[in-house]
Amino acid sequence: MSKIKKDSADLTLAERIEQSLNGFITRNKKLLIIILAVVVVGLITLGIVSSVTQKNQREQFNLIDELEATYAELLYTDSEDASYQGKYDSLVASLTELSAKGKEYPNLKAGYLLGMLSFEESSYQTAMETFLSVYSNADGSYLGSLALTNAAVAAEELGDSSLALEYYTKVLDEFGFTAAEAPKALFGQARLQEQNGNIDLAKATFQQLADQFPSSEFAKLATNRLALL
Fold first, then answer.
1. Radius of gyration of the chain measured on its C-alpha atoms
2. The Cα angle at residue 179 between residues 131 and 210, in degrees rounded to 5
């Protein structure tokens, strides 16, 4: 056996791997430098995008807080006030723009406030459609149950009791009795069942409401209705 072959045979596996790796690096140095540069640029870009996204999210949360405060102010402003219409139009424009920018909380809350504004203007069809849009994009969040309950109320205002009952029932089926709107949905369900002549079912729903939510204002109303049925 020649000295070269003997030396090669005496190399450990780790040494042979290292020797092979060194050869590969030497042969492909330029390619590796390019790949490394691409990776670095990619990481920098990812960091920038993440930073920009977080900044945009913070800005949207701050904006919805401001818009909600403006909405609250308008509720206590006389519609005949000289400044009312300008503030109203500006609020609607800002909420519309924000609601179209995504499906995160600030965007959904903006849509919800638009629904409230339409409802208060007695534009019940627009309000219902807006609430349903928020519900469909809320992905099970509390805004979804709130929006769906308000859609039911808007449907009632439109005189569509069957659709209102469908929405109240959906609130309970999809969000359960832990949802903040559950007592209101149960009361709406019972009222419409009574209205449709389903007295026994209405009594059972009123009783369920009184039993499950005894401290709710709707439970007190349910108890009063039970006394009359």
1. 31
2. 115
- Max CA distance (Å), the chain: 111
Q: How far apart are CA 191 and CA 88, in angstroms?
A: 34
Chunked mean pLDDT (size 10), the chain, 229 residues = 47 61 62 59 48 72 90 87 90 94 91 95 96 93 93 96 96 93 95 94 95 94 92
Mark 79-94 as b/e (b = at least 16 C-beta within 10 Å).
Answer: eeeeeeeeebeebeeb
Q: Tell me the per-residue pLDDT of 146-192, one tens digit each, with 9 for 90 and over.
A: 999 999 999 999 999 999 999 999 999 999 999 999 999 999 999 99
Q: If we measure between CA atoms, which residue out of 158, 153, 160, 79 comes closest to residue 116?
A: 153
Cβ of 71: how many Cβ atoms within 10 Å? Answer: 20
Whether the Cβ atoms of residue 67 and residue 57 lie closer than 8 Å to each other: no
Computed over every residue of the chain, the mean pLDDT equals: 84
Assign 3-state DSSP to the chain and report helix, strand, coil percentages, each to 5. 80, 0, 20
Residues 144 and 133 sit within 8 Å (Cβ to Cβ): no
Contacts of 30 (CB under 8 A, 6+ apart): none
Contact 218, 183 (CB under 8 A): yes
